[in-house]
Write a structure and sequence with these properties.
The chain has about 200 residues and is an all-alpha fold. It has a single domain, classed as Tetracycline Repressor, domain 2. It contains nine helices and no strands. Helix 7 packs across helix 8 and helix 8 (about 150-170) packs antiparallel against helix 9 (about 180-190). It comes from Peribacillus psychrosaccharolyticus (Bacillus psychrosaccharolyticus). One of its GO terms (molecular function) is DNA binding. Keywords: DNA-binding, Repressor.
């Protein structure tokens, strides 16, 4: 219920900016409160601590990723087209919000093991979406029938993730969305049936 409240979203959006600009470990709750234009104490009405803010931020943003991708792939016929939409949308969302890109590609990786395990739980919905595209591709004959879903998922997610991380590390000097077609072709080379 709290996620439907405006201040919750204000705090999440502020946390993205503050964590991106200062790093997770240097991102003080007071800075997040100031960015969100709320009192420091207001943060604790919605979140237990800074770690809870980071997990909630990731839940919100990954939920948005999955929602947007599902919306766009619903009109696509083939698994190959759905995969292209997933890649394009992933890159576009990060390109549209560089602060979010920095947080997801760099800051989330610097967290402790327990926090990373919680983040992996949140990532499950996104990985399930990739799995569904792979399974559909196998069932329709678009992808190799003996393709390992787990291995293909790791390859797809890893390639998308590394491409986005490289873009962030290079200070966004080029268009991330323009990389989508090439990434798609490379991934299809490993998954698709040869005609």
């Amino acid at each position: 219920m709290k996620s439907n409240r405006p201040k919750y979203k204000q705090i999440i959006d502020a946390a993205v900016v503050i964590i991106a600009e200062n790093g997770y470990h240097q991102a003080q709750v007071s800075k997040i409160a100031k960015q969100a234009k709320v009192a420091d104490g207001t943060i604790y009405l919605y979140f237990k601590n800074k770690e809870d803010i980071l997990i909630s931020l990731f839940q919100e943003k990954m939920g948005y990723f999955v929602e947007q991708i599902e919306l766009e792939i619903s009109g696509k016929e083939s698994a190959q087209d759905k995969l292209l939409v997933l890649i394009k949308k992933h890159f576009q969302i990060l390109s549209d919000d560089v602060h979010l890109a920095v947080v997801t590609q760099l800051e989330l990786r610097q967290s402790n093991k327990e926090l990373r395990l919680r983040i992996n739980d949140v990532l499950r919905g996104y990985l399930n979406l990739i799995d569904s595209i792979i399974i559909e591709g196998k069932e329709t004959g678009a992808f190799l029938p003996d393709l390992s879903v787990k291995l293909a998922r790791q390859m797809i997610f890893g390639t998308i993730d590394e491409t986005a991380t490289t873009w962030v590390m290079n200070d966004q000097k080029y268009s991330l969305p323009k990389q989508a077609e090439a990434v798609h072709q490379l991934l299809l080379g490993g998954c698709a049936c040869k005609n």
